[in-house]
Amino acid sequence: MKEFNNLDLQLNRGILTITINRPDKLNALNLATVEEIRDAIQKVYDDKTIVGVIITGAGEKAFVAGADIKEISDLNEVNGRKFSENGQEVFALIENCHKPIIAAVNGYALGGGCELAMACHIRVATRNAKFGQPEVSLGIIPGYGGTQRLTQLIGKGKALELMMTGDSISADEAQTLGLANYVTDNSEEMLAKSAALLDKITSRAPLAVGMVITCVNAVYFYDENGYQTEANSFASCCKSDDFIEGTTAFIEKRPARFKGE
Ligand code: CO8
């Protein structure tokens, strides 16, 4: 199997577990990691021996705490749009995969981490998990499909509230809202529940399961424009002073002072 620097891949009885492995940065997604996710998911499409996938994060604290803020802090309007479109493409590869993909959310799923979890077909969380889209605190918006998928999963009112406040919610609340399918007491139970779900799904007819995914995703195809609007809006945020202030404040570990320009 190909060597990955930021992912750990384990194949067991046809189930590929992809662990995002940057625990000292709470598994934040830098571009290299996003590209490795692309390669790993492409392998899922190509390799007949893989029947299902679990995506999780290394360590006890985080699934993924978002895009790597240090890396994105010097994005401008042009490469900001490219960054957003590139991530949207990788996450669409996950969403449209004909094999079941479960996000095993073992801690913070914030920003791009929540977006990654939402691109998966099912989410199984530990009770200490936290879901949220805190981008407005950094002067940006969700840029990896979050404005679209959060609205699809939990409805407009709650999605607007979460994305406008930047608040994060507990795993129990995420389950009540339909964002988490299951909440478990610890990582072991989370992985066992994810594996049990995959065992059941992969015992069904694979072509039919793949078509369920295609047809359910087709409900939202009319909305493809939303992703372009998101990428354009993300790019506009990248040229604002507030984006520089928001990301600098995070790096300097201080509250941000926004001016609305
Ligand atoms: N990016 C980079 N580094 C991070 C990130 C991140 N998203 N999150 C945590 N880290 C780093 C910290 O800087 C720290 O590193 P160091 O030890 O070198 O200082 C280390 O991980 C541990 O983090 P903390 O010390 O902050 O841990 P705490 O337990 O005190 O806090 C939190 C945990 C609450 C999760 C806190 O780390 C936090 O608020 N993180 C940022 C969360 C966030 O804002 N995420 C959204 C990022 S933006 C985004 O995802 C946009 C997606 C769309 C992008 C589209 C194109 C680019």
Describe this structure in words.
With 261 residues, the protein is of the alpha/beta class. The chain has 2 domains: 7-202, Alpha-Beta Complex (2-enoyl-CoA Hydratase, Chain A, domain 1); 206-251. The chain has 11 helices and 10 strands. The strands form 2 sheets. The protein has a 6-stranded mixed sheet, sandwiched between helices. Helix 1 (31-46) links the parallel strand 2 and strand 3. Helix 4 (112-119) packs across helix 5. The longest helix has 19 residues, at 77-95. It is globular, with a radius of gyration of 17 Å. The termini are far apart. Octanoyl-coenzyme A is lined by residues 25-26, 28, 65-70, 72, 83-84, 87, 108, 110-112, 134-135, 138, 142-144, 234.
Q: What's the story with the biggest beta sheet? A: 6 strands, mixed
**CATH architecture title of the largest domain:** Alpha-Beta Complex
Order of strands in the sheet with most strands: 1-2-3-5-7-10
Shape: globular
Bound molecules: octanoyl-coenzyme A
CATH topology of the largest domain: 2-enoyl-CoA Hydratase, Chain A, domain 1
* Through-space gap between termini: 48 Å
What is the strand and helix layout of this fold?
Elements: E1 7-12, E2 15-20, H1 31-46, E3 52-57, E4 62-64, H2 69-72, H3 77-95, E5 101-105, E6 108-110, H4 112-119, E7 122-126, E8 130-132, H5 146-154, H6 156-165, E9 168-170, H7 171-177, E10 182-184, H8 187-203, H9 206-218, H10 224-238, H11 241-251
Parallel strand pairs: 2-3, 3-5, 4-6, 5-7, 6-8, 7-10
Antiparallel strand pairs: 1-2, 8-9
Helix pairs in contact: 1-3, 3-4, 3-10, 4-5, 5-6
The chain binds octanoyl-coenzyme A.
